Amino acid sequence: MRRLNLILLIAGTVCLYWMLKRLGWAKLGLYLCHAGYYLPLLFVPYGLVNLLWTVSWGCLLPDKMSRPSPGRLFLLFLAGQSLNQLTPSASMGGEPFMALRLKDFGVAWEEATASVVIRKGLFVLSLTLYSFLGLILTPLMSSISVFRLRFLSLGVLALGTGGLSFLIAQRKSPCVSAMRFLEKCRLCPRKLKDKERELVELDLCLAGFYHKYPFRIFLSLLTLMLGWLIHAVEVCVIFRLMGHPINFGPALCLDALATIFSSLGFMIPGALGIQDGGTILVAMGLDLGAALAGAFTILRRIREAFWLSLGLAAAAVANQKTSERKQAVSSL
């Protein structure tokens, strides 16, 4: 898996460099320099997005006594997001980290694991709804070809099918069912078999949450959708910084359709190359211009690097505190 991710990452980097070179460094530089002293505004919208998505995760932690403070939960969410995007784990590397750190804060392990599993399913569902909204609005905003819309529709369909299947499976004893399947194939490791009792408890926690807290599920999904709308506002901010303001409608279409390409590139850390090339293609279909779209992707990568760096720093601090806590316990 790591070798495959590395090969894909190198290929994506080469493709991105080739695309930007074809667009012309001089044109890209003019758009980037236009931001000037207002460049720090680039980081604000995504901060609000992360805040809303942290609140969405907090909705899935009903026990107020064991739930970390909003600030700690925010930093923990940033750390998980960074690990998702930068580690060779198909966008799943942050969830185990988030669950383990929640356990360190005193959250029961089955509740901690259930919260990140349910949040992941709801996130995919919200992404599907957001992409579908973009598909509906795009024909009203531009003359993008029917072939491109059909191709993007297939991507949304695949994403939605996977997301719904994941959510439905959470209510069907997924852990024990997976273990039984491995046993039939004679591939179940002994360590997993020894944890059958814990897996049963996790399955009960997952299924029970949907029955016990349906309003929290709805509230979490709604907050995720609000985060996606702020994600579209970020597009408006970036284009205004480049001196080419656009309305919220085209911004939402560009952002929603570009997320489809990002989702298809989940095997590449940061979806490098796939996300950028897809954004440029969608922007051209919306008559925004290839060079302007290229500068837009660069600014988004700058924003991404800023928040990923904060997330990695938060992950390092969390790991250090966990190690210190374990050492203190062992010394006693």
Can you tell me about this structure?
With 332 residues, the chain is mostly helical. The protein has one domain. The protein contains 14 helices and no strands. It is globular and about 60 Å long. The model has no long low-confidence stretch (mean pLDDT 84).
User: What is the helix tally?
Assistant: 14
Q: What's the average pLDDT?
A: 84
Flag low-confidence runs: none
Content of β-strand = under 5%
Query: What helical percentage do the residues reach?
Result: over 70%
Q: What is the N-to-C order of secondary-structure elements (H for helix, E for strand)?
A: HHHHHHHHHHHHHH
Biggest beta sheet summary: none
Gross geometry: globular
Q: Could you give a short description of this structure?
A:
The chain has 332 residues and is mostly helical. The protein is built from 14 helices and no strands. The chain has one domain.
List the defining traits of the structure above.
single chain; 332 residues; mainly alpha; 14 helices; 79% helix; 0% strand
Outline the secondary-structure elements.
Elements: H1 2-23, H2 25-33, H3 44-58, H4 70-86, H5 94-104, H6 109-141, H7 146-169, H8 174-184, H9 190-194, H10 196-212, H11 214-241, H12 248-264, H13 274-285, H14 290-331
Helix pairs in contact: 2-14, 3-4, 3-11, 4-5, 4-14, 5-6, 6-7, 6-10, 6-11, 6-12, 7-12, 8-10, 11-12, 12-13, 13-14
